[in-house]
Design a protein that fits this description.
Elements: H1 3-12, H2 39-56, E1 59-60, H3 63-79, E2 88-92, E3 99-102, E4 106-110, H4 111-116, H5 120-135, H6 138-149, H7 151-166, H8 168-207, H9 214-225, H10 235-239, H11 244-255, H12 266-279, H13 283-296, H14 300-312, H15 316-329, H16 334-346, H17 350-363, H18 368-380, H19 384-395, H20 402-414, H21 418-431, H22 435-448, H23 453-474
Parallel strand pairs: 2-4
Antiparallel strand pairs: 1-2, 3-4
Helix pairs in contact: 1-8, 3-5, 3-8, 5-8, 5-9, 6-8, 7-8, 8-11, 9-11, 12-14, 13-14, 14-15, 15-16, 16-17, 16-18, 17-18, 18-19, 18-20, 19-20, 20-21, 21-22, 22-23
């Protein structure tokens, strides 16, 4: 548990999310006359914290999981009449039940929360709560509140971070002591934030077509399941203290909206199944569990999970039987196309895999998941001449996952276009918050030369933009 996350957990009045950090440039909080976080401050700090999480290796990068969480988050943001452009949703590979918001619109969800949720409305309820922390500016407001408490408190926070630069354990101990000293002063303000996040989040649920009872229902279930536990509490109960009063208040707010069935999407259930397979440390046991489940309930989710578990066990023939049957009954389901394509590639049938991906793109032109799957497949087969134009078209004038830029850089390098590859790598590192590394890649593209007018102009425009973004840091 690292220092930057301790700091913002304290400012918000919650315990920290798990995130590693190398360095973090924070605004000066020693002067109470300049305590407000500007949007630029929030974006810069959030980007640095996101970079730290990425470097920690805890970021779950499965494209299907990423896209599902992003789309669910954007649906909730839109329901709250906010712009989705200011948010990024991501999944941390951790079995704990937790979620957290960071400055700059970054919202993290632990994989354990997704698998532990019983309904999509429960998951959406937790995400809506975190989105509300962002839209209601709780991080910035709590930061200002903490800064106004007293000078020793804020100075101690900075001191703890500085101590941690050379000795993480010492720094964390110092900051923990600081947090304990200021915790009572933060308590009322924290409760107010949590109530407001509940209220705004429930409104998002109802407007987004989810069951507004999903949020209080999830709170109540956790509180009941762990009410006698002294250890092993879910992180969510530590980071978001749930009292009977809070549950009742959330339940009363949810009752104000018309009843909603809030039925689960099949996509939600399939993502849960995939996460269980991805995260298990015992594939054989999980395969046996799915086999037993199919004896009692022969549903599509159970068959899909069983097929993925069989693939992890390299039992491709049996997995093919299951996935082919699912695909025949629901030929437009992208999850089945992707799983079958991965199976065929793993079973040394590259032509069959490519055909599945291309058929999928014919049905869904420009689909992100299918495009990336096909591009990766082509590169594995040495077909960089086909992968490069596919990825160039895909990454042009649209928001794409960082992986797309990484694949484009690989395709351009193999095609002998190293300067263009450096530009793609700059986009990749920028999307990860590695702004300085992105600038270095653009400078390398400059030195490499050989760029035509279009790419030279593109390079200069990107470099100017990045230098403008980092100018405040260089002036410090």
């Amino acid at each position: 548990m690292k220092l930057a996350t301790y700091l913002f957990a304290f400012l918000l009045g919650t315990a920290p999310a798990h995130a590693a950090t190398d360095s973090l440039t924070l605004p000066d909080i020693g002067d109470s006359s300049a305590t407000a976080l500007t949007p630029a401050d929030e974006e810069r700090i959030g980007r640095e914290m996101m970079r730290s999480i990425t470097l920690s290796g805890m970021l779950l990068t499965d494209p299907e999981v990423e896209e599902y969480v992003q789309q669910l988050g954007f649906r909730l943001v839109s329901a709250g009449n906010q712009s989705a452009a200011g948010f990024r949703f991501f999944v941390v590979s951790a079995p704990s039940i937790n979620a957290f918001a960071m400055p700059g619109g970054y919202v993290g969800i632990h994989s354990g929360l997704i698998t532990a949720s019983r309904t999509e409305s429960e998951l959406a309820g937790v995400m809506a709560h975190e989105i509300a922390h962002v839209t209601q500016h709780h991080l910035a407001r709590s930061y200002e509140r903490a800064s106004q408490m007293n000078m020793p408190l804020t100075a101690a926070v900075i001191a703890a971070i500085l101590l941690g630069a050379g000795n993480p354990q010492l720094g964390e101990a110092a900051l923990a002591a600081t947090m304990a000293g200021g915790s009572q002063m933060q308590l009322d303000f924290t409760r107010s934030n949590e109530r407001e996040a509940d209220r705004v989040g429930i409104q998002m649920l109802a407007s987004g077509g989810f069951d507004p009872q999903g949020m209080p229902g999830f709170f109540e279930r956790l509180q009941q399941e762990y009410r006698y536990a002294s250890t092993g509490l879910p992180e969510f109960l530590s980071t978001h203290p749930v009292t009977l009063e809070r549950i009742a208040d959330a339940r009363n707010r949810a009752d104000q909206y018309p009843p909603s069935p809030g039925s689960d999407s099949l996509g939600y259930r399939l993502i849960q199944a995939k996460l269980r397979v991805l995260e298990t440390r015992n594939p054989a046991a999980l395969t046996g569990q799915y086999r037993a489940d199919l004896e009692g309930e022969d549903g599509v989710v159970e068959r899909y999970g069983y097929a993925l578990a069989l693939m992890r066990q390299h039992d491709y023939p049996q997995a093919r039987v299951l996935l082919s049957a699912l695909h025949r009954k629901d030929p437009q389901r992208i999850a089945y196309m992707l799983a079958l394509g991965q199976l065929e590639a793993a079973d040394n049938r590259p032509a069959a895999a490519e055909r599945l991906y291309r058929d999928g793109l014919h049905a869904y032109p420009g689909n992100s998941l299918l495009t990336l799957a096909l591009a990766e497949h082509l590169l594995r087969q040495g077909e960089h001449a086909q992968a490069a134009p596919l990825l160039r078209d895909f990454t042009r004038n649209r928001s794409v996952p960082p992986r797309a830029y990484e694949l484009l850089a690989e395709a351009e390098t193999r095609s002998g276009r190293q300067g263009v590859a450096y530009i793609a790598l700059a986009d990749y590192y920028r999307s990860l918050g590695e702004t300085q590394t992105a600038i270095e890649q653009l400078n390398m593209a400059r030195r490499t030369g050989g760029l035509d007018f279009y790419y030279q102009s593109l390079l200069e425009a990107k470099l100017t933009q990045l230098l403008d973004e980092t100018a405040p840091l260089r002036q410090r």
